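Example 3.2
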Amino acid sequence: MSRRRPKGNALDFRAEINVTSLVDVAFTLLVIFIITAPALQGGVEVELPRANVRPVTTQEDPFIVSVQRDGSIFIGETRVERADFRSSFPQLMEASGRDLVYIRGDSAVVWGVGVEVMATVAASGVRMAIIAEPDRNR
């Protein structure tokens, strides 16, 4: 005699998707994006001084000169020696055809280096703007 299963006791099939691995992958990607996001910002690391300033708005890619705390000078993201900056900046501005330079100086930069950069920019005949962080306390 063979026994058959009654129809009421048939195995039920469940159509479920195991999302545990999907959640693991999603959290892994989230952690990767959180870690890499600051590195994607680019630019030279400068702690800007705080002042009562308005946001900078420009239509084109800004021409930025940065001065770090140790006196290092950067044109864009390229480090330039002080003597090379004095001699090459006017030629670089003439070749770029721009008339405005944004200067980002660290709040603890040696004052002499900052003045030297501003004097070189002014001597090249272009306008300059100093970049600062907005001061929320004012």
